[in-house]
Automatic annotation (TrEMBL), chain A:
InterPro entries: 2-oxoacid/accept_OxRdtase_asu (IPR022367), Pyruvate:ferred/Flavod_OxRd (IPR050722), Pyrv/ketoisovalerate_OxRed_cat (IPR019752), Pyrv_Fd/Flavodoxin_OxRdtase_N (IPR002880), Pyrv_flavodox_OxRed_cen (IPR002869), THDP-binding (IPR029061), Transketo_C/PFOR_II (IPR009014). It comes from Paralabilibaculum antarcticum. This is 2-oxoacid:acceptor oxidoreductase subunit alpha. It comes from the Bacteria. Residues 22-211 form the Pyruvate/ketoisovalerate oxidoreductase catalytic domain. It holds the Pfam family POR. NCBIfam families: OAFO_sf. Keywords: Oxidoreductase.
UniProtKB/TrEMBL annotation, chain B:
The keyword ATP-binding does not apply. Keywords: Oxidoreductase. The keyword Zinc-finger does not apply. CDD domains: TPP_OGFOR. Residues 60-207 form the Thiamine pyrophosphate enzyme TPP-binding domain. The lineage of its organism: Bacteria, Pseudomonadati, Bacteroidota, Bacteroidia, Marinilabiliales. SUPFAM superfamilies: Thiamin diphosphate-binding fold (THDP-binding). This is 2-oxoacid:ferredoxin oxidoreductase subunit beta. Transmembrane segments: none annotated.
Amino acid sequence: MSQKTKIIEREEVVIRFSGDSGDGMQLTGTQFSDTSALFGNDVATFPDYPAEIRAPQGTVGGVSGFQLHFGHQEIYTPGDYADVLVAMNPAALKANLKWVKASGTIIVNEDSFTDKNLEKAGYESDPLLDDKLADYNLIKAKVTSLTRECLKDSGLDQKSILRCKNMFTLGMVYWMFDRPLDHSEDFIEKKFKKYPLVVDANKKVLKAGYNFAKTIEALPYNYSVAPAKIRKGTYRNITGNKATAWGLMAAAERANLELFCGSYPITPATEILQELAARKDLGVKTFQAEDEIAGICTAIGASFAGDFAVTTTSGPGLALKTEAAGLAVMTELPLVIVNVQRGGPSTGLPTKTEQSDLLQAIHGRSGECPMPVIAASTPSDCFHYAFEASRIALEHMTPVILLTDGFIANGAEPWRIPTMSELPEIVAPIAKEGDDFLPYAREEKRLSRRWAIPGTKGLEHRIGGLEKIDGVGTVSYVPENHQVMSDIRKKRVELVADNIPELKVKGKDDADVLVVGWGGTYGHLTTAVRELQKEEKSISLAHFNYIFPLPKNTAEVLGRYKKIIVCELNDGQFAEYLRSTFQDIKFEQHNKLMGLPFTVVELKERFNQLLEEK
Amino acid sequence: MADTVLNSPNIKKLSAKDFRSDQENRWCPGCGDHGILNSVQKAMADMDFKKEDYAVISGIGCSSRFPYYMDTYGFHTIHGRAAAIASGAKCANPDLEVIQVSGDGDALAIGGNHFIHAVRRNIDMTILLFNNEIYGLTKGQYSPTSNHGMVTKTSPFGTIEEPFKPSQLAMGAGSKFYARSLDTNIKLTTEIVKAASDHKGTSIVEVLQNCVIYNDGAHSIITDKATKEDYTVIIEHGKPMIFGKEKNKGLIMGGNGKLVVVTIGEHGITEEDVLVHDAHTEDPHMHWLLSSMMAPEYPVALGVIRDVDSTSYDEKMVQQIEDIKAISSIKSMDDLLNSGDTWVVE
Ligand SMILES: Cc1ncc(C[n+]2csc(CCOP(=O)(O)OP(=O)(O)O)c2C)c(N)n1
Ligand code: SF4
């Protein structure tokens, strides 16, 4: 396709598209990543939305970004620093320049660098004119006027014409990385099927961008990123929130139960509810409640009545659900509570990521109120852990908290599609008509009570939040009984450890340093540790998905290492939990509270420091 | 929908006793809740549901202990949240006959939000609202239905709050069924519970209940022998609204859009002039007026005040799922997983 002579083979490339929230950067980024995935690269993406949906146009607060990382090898993160930045206006340049690699390429829409826009972005002088960008490969393209020129006879109005300008930059980047246009052309045809004029215009501008880059020889050489060696199978791109929704639905199907989701919208968890609401064809019942409390309460009611029930939320919403979560613990009903963590206390940083709801998930309820907690670690494994959370909830008759976070919830990656028959069957202990039934009688192995679903003849019974006598389930304030029941509730959660996999370490059993992480930091920690391992450094990684209870071999694994560093996007909540659980083991910490994921660079720096000490 | 028990001659008809559980009743002797329990058990025995199809769901309060005393599926939940929990149960299993029990504090204070939204959605369930105008379980604090100026443990100098009228709140939220009864009137409560259960959609049944300990006599004007007949009108669809010891008082519409109490036989008023109750009219205006009547200016209206045909949330939910299932090409998770943009790596 390309006529360029020099081709540079690259292992991996990071591209960041950025512009005003109306500039279509999310779509541009998704198109490029889909095309790369189809081409056979491994890809990881991360959209970065402005916190305010209506931030003034052209300001730094209104910048919308989409970063993607594709490569010839397995890719675990959307990348720290960009090889290529597309900046549709001065604000986008201002907000993102610090994320561009030294000597990286910057494509700007020159037309947007007007005095007014420069002022809005807070520039005192035009960065395109001074030497601030001298170290970069700066490509100035008059994207707006070229798009306009290209479509002057298209029959479209000015507004629609301007909307096509993201296709121009997409075309340019396609040329730079020698990517075919056909996937995006198909996409355009499907998306605007009803508007042939729009289809023609977008395709025309896409090609124009491609040809423009070719004409100006946007790069002195062409990058080539070979396909990755990935497992055979059928793939699709999936975001964490979608994967979570699908994992819950898959669990319902494998458990042969109807799925009910009671929820209240909150960023960044909302897409799970939306995704489930779209699935009436699979019989999913979604209930958009009046608040988070009603969200979990409708789910508890549905669970009482025999549906597989879930509720979805983010940090502040989890706080509201607390009291009802306690009711689910007391009544020993299956329930999955998904918490997509976001930044900060209170409303905090709604669109940014953090891991600081961990202790809320483990302990944040009134009374001694133990509940299993598990965490997903990548966009696609949200499917697996949503399924796991459901399996544990249903098999052990308990509410379970599933933690994801804004970073993996919004991020996307290619995912090898499983078939339903690969997934284990889930068998909930449902009591049948004619069974000898007592509401709080327990089976031996898991100490779970059975689920007698209203409508089943002969199993009429009463449950509730008041303490009950074990077995018969009559209300009881007898002191000794409360001790017995508290012990049982604790034991029940401990017994979940028999039903989850052991912890596996990436790297040697006797490495000098063990890196410990949990949840959504998996990609960055894995990349940093792998890179150091390639440099022959003595370092291993233990990443946790099962938080409470911990895998059975945790003490043994941690006990093998002299130096352990726990890395989290909070102030040390997992470290604190590990310290209180394993009091003889010493834990170092690496923490960050910026609403941002770790960077591989900062992690490697910290690990090297630790490796060098003593 | 649930099958009837009566479709086979071999099945013995249930009696109120069949709904009595073995749990020790902990309500104070003389508490109005006892009478309501009797009425509900009687109503359930009369209705065409199987015992196992009833789900009785309550919040927290004296009244919310109700499920423990019923031999059905029961759920004693948390303060204020019964409406939400009952809503979920009904959606999970629309075949259940869901009855929610709440006190005035439970339903209208902490649970006010869930109450109005359950009504707005029109979930097919019956909400029994035990109104004793006080917090019983926490020992005598004022509630959102306590009279202005009422002296209680948390209002030693009298409340400075205006009370809710549950009927107005329900109608404001779009209620299609509202009825009012009195704890001591077992017959009326039984009939109302049956009518509420028959109604498709959220049925609000306010039962005026006496708390002998913390608010004794709150409803005395309509319970005391001496006054009750002059201060209550029991209304029935299609019947003239006549009341009073002598059965000679009635309600007519006054010129200013307000109801007026008249005496039959005086000023040329005959029985024909008295308003006939229409519970089924969609327009809530008259229902609002009737349910807002307060003694001593007016008699307090008891009976089914509003009962308007409607389609419930759960019916619409089931229908929507059926409709979408019929037209979608996605029939299973495997279909969904493989839908949209996928690619194969060989
Ligand atoms: C979250 C929460 N807040 C407060 C309470 C305490 N509480 C229990 S019942 C109640 C009020 C009960 O009044 P009402 O609902 O009118 O019922 P009654 O006891 O009068 O039947 C209160 C405040 C509680 N159990 N839970
Ligand atoms: S305190 Fe009042 S409401 Fe509660 S049981 Fe006693 S009389 Fe009934």
